[in-house]
Amino acid sequence: MIQGTGSHVGKSFLATALCRILLRRGYEVAPFKAQNMANNAAAVAGGEIGRAQALQAAAGRVDPDVRMNPVLLKPSGDRRSQVVLMGKPVGTFTVRQIDRRKPVWFKTVRRAFQTLSAENDAMVIEGAGSPAEINLRSVDFANMRVAKMAGARVILVGDIDRGGVFASLFGTVRLLRPDERDTLIGLCINKFRGDATLLDSGLRFLRRKTGHPVLGVIPYDTELRLPEEDSLALGWRTPGRQGRDGRRLALGLVRTPHIANFTDFDPFQVEPDVMIRDVVRPKDLSGLSTVLLPGSKNVFGDMDFLRRSGLADALRSDTRLPIVGICGGLQLLGRAMIDPGGVEAGRPARTAGLGLLPVVTRFSRKKIVRPVVWRHRPSKALIRGYEIHHGMVSVIDGSTGACQPLFHGENETREGCISSDGRVIGTLTHGVFDSDRFRAAFLNGLRKRAGRPLRPPARYDLDSLIDRAADLVESHLDVGAILRRLIKHS
């Protein structure tokens, strides 16, 4: 089990790499995370799970399974989260309501782990946040309670790039109870830059004071950008790529408060002439080649943000800037969003959208979670993506001509909407830019508008990125020592 000194220290990254490392060594391996809090989700057989566990399943080359993430919390604002239990939404609750239900849900966690582990040689379990949040110990079933349930041995990882890694590791170990410390087999330092020998005295201190060795110091490969789990990282961008560079296409990602599934835009990392900039206010629109409206866990709250920030008026008034909306982004681009049952907003709500596409979204308690396959006829691209949404989008009567479909499927089914001038497009399908051919067609349209040379499709190969992560971790983490401890423990 990988636990951390805090959020975004590298737990998901290490778990992904270890799934591939164990696979290479001949083990049938599956990932597991008891409780995940993230709005980046993936559609799998039976429902939805956290995006990180779907990635870890890919690292182990197994089909993603709802048992890999039995409890998924999707924050929707106002201290409320939609709870997805074994892939299915069971309601939206406050933090205290969730805590009261955890003892019942832990039974589900236990069953999921037991059945999944019985089918595999090895399990790689990911914790959440930190196991040393002493105020949450009684309700935390993502860390030490899971380790004990699973009989797992724990590696504690800290992030040196943030600073204070020795204090974080030492303090976390000291805040654990004696029986919790007994689960540890070692420590790990992640995201190191520079000469690792400079850490020697600190590593000796940790060994002496905690009784546990530092099993590895993982270098920070800033070019290795696996899909992120939550918006603390928000994608693959580096400071240089966020700057203003006239030699590259500038894509503006609107940072809404309830952003979800922003990993839809990760494939742009392979494009050498593309950079992504954050957009939070109207002046950020200057110099952009296009605007990207990502998914949303609360489109009503995000629409309010667009109005208050001035972005709504700015996007409406700019008649030349191309705009792309995915899932919640498509809903925001429409004429209106209607939620009579309070499914999205937590109370009955109705609001106007940006009005840039002739569609209306109506929310219902039924949630669509499914993989989809579409064809993009102009580029002949095959799109393999997924849908996760409560909002049902329909074209306004009489507006068919102003909303051409973006994709086509079997039996003349259609999906998405393109404005009559071709400037604004929206789709409910996540993962469309994973298609090299479709991404190239989209970007070449922007290049043509900007008078730039067209480019052939670049290759976005997630499996190769996983292999690269595994190579990095295996060369800097004492995997042999870990396996010897696990075999001895079992």
Which key phrases capture this entry?
single chain; 490 residues; alpha/beta; Rossmann fold; 2 domains; six-stranded mixed sheet; four-stranded parallel sheet; 14 helices; 30% helix; globular
CATH topology of the largest domain: Rossmann fold
Please name the CATH architecture of the largest domain: 3-Layer(aba) Sandwich
Mean pLDDT: 92
For the largest beta-sheet, the strand count, sense and barrel status come to: 6 strands, mixed
CATH class term of the largest domain: Alpha Beta
Residue fraction in strands: 25-35%
The N- and C-terminal alpha carbons lie at a distance of 14 Å
Task: Give the strand tally.
Answer: 26
Number of helices: 14
Uncertain segments = 235-243
Q: Give the overall silhouette.
A: globular
- Physical arrangement of strands within the biggest beta sheet: 15-13-16-18-26-25
The CATH superfamily of the largest domain is P-loop containing nucleotide triphosphate hydrolases
